[in-house]
């Protein structure tokens, strides 16, 4: 996969057929419609009739993914930057706001010192975000009784940086033979004890109560991207109640859900899941040079085979997925009453090409290991398999569409129409173009100037301590001093 290849950029493919021809040349199965249907004829405009969430039927087929904001206050409250983002979510036309913001269940579980915190006493400020979003949506689209808003509950685990933007304060489920060195895990004391876990479960339960009071329709119990609950899914080597067997590795989810219900909270539940994982990647040192990252290659891992340090990964070849436990997890979520599953993959910290296929790497990443469409296709096909496996009453949301750029709506339309996914989730692209699918389904074309080109600045900026946002395409950020700072950072790292 690290052999040289010529990257064909999506904007050079001028027609749907040219896009399909490129896909065929890669032996992939990404389907692309020729014509975008509009109005009520569009599959993307149809309500989601699988199941109501928060007592509402989701009004269309696109969702806004949760964002990990780096622009709250240092004590975890929203700022004007956060409020602007939530207003734009409301203006997007999406009827499922899946998390809006990744909110830490306690201060020391933040991924950065400016991440929002969801604890008792913060209901008013979080309710304000719901109000801002809802009002913007109502003014633009009239109807809000089909608008569903969720809060994502998270603890960053291995990726905690709650006090300084450059200082890891990792808490982990288990020791990892590759990731420990990268993220400064050097002591068994950083491994959470069973008693620590019980305390965290209480925090999740409390956070779900805050979400309900603040007006959320559901909470997402985050199990993706290498954060704490996702890491527990891979805790094969952990002893005791929360590691080893599948039953033990999912115990924390079961106890969180039980705690929420025992507290008398009937809020609906979702899970964002990294359905599969790979071994960590790094830039190829033989193809890197000063100011130029090399293509991604797997970290050396022969010393830790069979690989028992991830979820949904083949233990004999951790560059391939194995969905057997993923299917089990879907079944468990159904048993627990989880109503929606938002499917992702891997982690932006150790294999970003899987989770966020991109033409340009983030500053702490690497050049594409292969054509990014390979990873788009992989996620589409996995969601397709999970949709076929999951019960009909569960809503599945697909991911990795941003890289498709001009052809995002064409592929999304096909996948929803054919039942490959119930909904299409959009992340990065909504920072530059929140109303991309609204435009596609009302006027049949897009504004090229606003389309996310996967520059990865929305990752590079916060990784280097700058506020979140789309610096290349959103004029709001071009007048900020961070715009110039980011240009200098990119020059230094060769991103």
Write the layout of secondary structure elements.
Elements: H1 16-25, E1 48-53, E2 56-58, E3 62-64, H2 80-91, E4 96-97, E5 102-104, H3 123-141, E6 148-154, H4 179-182, H5 194-214, E7 218-221, H6 228-233, H7 246-249, H8 251-262, E8 268-274, E9 281-283, E10 296-298, H9 324-335, E11 340-344, H10 352-355, H11 373-389, E12 395-398, H12 408-417, E13 423-426, H13 429-432, H14 436-442, H15 457-463, H16 475-478, H17 481-493
Parallel strand pairs: 3-4, 3-13, 4-6, 5-6, 6-7, 7-8, 8-11, 11-12, 12-13
Antiparallel strand pairs: 1-2, 9-10
Helix pairs in contact: 2-3, 3-5, 5-8
What is the overall silhouette? Answer: globular
* CATH architecture level-2 label: Alpha-Beta Barrel
Strand order of the largest sheet: 3-4-6-7-8-11-12-13
**Radius of gyration of CA atoms, rounded to a whole number:** 21 Å
What is the multimeric organization of the chains shown?
Answer: single chain
Number of domains: 1
Strand content: 5-15%
Succession of helices and strands: HEEEHEEHEHHEHHHEEEHEHHEHEHHHHH
Instruction: Classify the secondary structure makeup into a structural class.
Output: alpha/beta
Averaged pLDDT: 95
End-to-end Cα distance: 21 Å
Uncertain runs with pLDDT below 50, 5 residues or more? none
User: Number of helix segments?
Assistant: 17
Number of strands: 13
Provide the CATH topology. TIM Barrel
CATH fourth-tier homologous superfamily:
Aldolase class I
The helix content, as a percent range, equals 25-40%
Query: What's the main sheet like?
Result: 8 strands, parallel, barrel
């Amino acid at each position: 996969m690290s052999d040289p290849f010529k990257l064909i950029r999506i904007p050079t493919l001028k027609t749907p057929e040219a896009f399909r021809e490129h896909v065929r040349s890669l032996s992939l199965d990404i389907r692309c419609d020729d014509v975008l249907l509009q109005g009520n004829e569009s599959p993307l405009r149809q309500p989601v009739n699988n199941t109501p969430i928060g007592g509402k039927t989701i009004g269309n087929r696109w969702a806004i993914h949760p964002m990990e904001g780096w622009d709250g206050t240092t004590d975890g409250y929203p700022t004007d930057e956060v409020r602007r983002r939530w207003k734009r979510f409301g203006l997007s036309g999406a009827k499922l706001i899946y998390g809006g913001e990744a909110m830490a269940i306690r201060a020391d579980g933040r991924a950065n010192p400016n991440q929002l915190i969801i604890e008792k006493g913060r209901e008013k400020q979080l309710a304000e975000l719901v109000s801002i979003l809802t009002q913007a949506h109502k003014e633009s689209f009239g109807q809000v009784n089909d608008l569903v808003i969720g809060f994502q509950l998270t603890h960053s685990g291995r990726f905690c940086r709650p006090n300084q933007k450059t200082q890891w304060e990792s808490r982990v489920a288990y020791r990892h033979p590759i990731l420990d060195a990268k993220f400064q895990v050097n002591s068994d004391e950083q491994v959470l004890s069973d008693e620590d876990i019980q305390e965290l479960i209480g925090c999740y339960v409390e956070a779900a109560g805050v979400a309900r009071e603040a007006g959320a329709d559901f909470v997402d119990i985050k199990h993706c991207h290498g954060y704490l609950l996702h890491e527990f899914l891979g805790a094969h080597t952990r002893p005791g109640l929360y590691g080893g067997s599948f039953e033990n590795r999912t115990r924390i989810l079961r106890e969180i859900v039980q705690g929420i219900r025992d507290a008398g909270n009937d809020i609906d539940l979702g899970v964002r899941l990294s359905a599969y994982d790979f071994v960590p990647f790094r830039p190829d040192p033989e193809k890197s040079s000063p100011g130029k990252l090399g293509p991604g290659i797997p970290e050396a891992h022969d010393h830790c085979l069979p690989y028992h340090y991830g979820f949904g990964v083949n233990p004999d070849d951790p560059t391939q997925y194995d969905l057997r436990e993923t299917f089990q997890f879907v079944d468990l979520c159904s048993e627990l009453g989880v109503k929606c599953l938002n499917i992702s993959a891997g982690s932006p910290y150790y294999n970003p090409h899987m989770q966020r296929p991109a033409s340009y790497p983030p500053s702490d990443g690497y050049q594409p290991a292969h054509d990014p469409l390979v990873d788009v296709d992989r996620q589409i096909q996995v969601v397709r398999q999970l949709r076929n496996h999951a019960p009909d009453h569960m809503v599945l949301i697909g991911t990795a569409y941003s890289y498709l750029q001009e052809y995002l709506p064409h592929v999304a339309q096909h996948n929803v129409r054919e039942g490959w996914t119930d909904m299409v989730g959009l992340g990065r692209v909504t920072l530059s173009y929140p109303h991309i699918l609204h435009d596609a389904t009302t006027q049949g074309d897009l504004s090229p100037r606003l389309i996310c080109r996967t520059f990865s600045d929305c990752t590079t900026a916060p990784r280097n301590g700058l506020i979140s946002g789309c610096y290349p395409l959103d004029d709001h950020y071009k007048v900020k001093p961070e715009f110039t700072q980011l240009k200098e950072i990119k020059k230094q790292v060769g991103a």
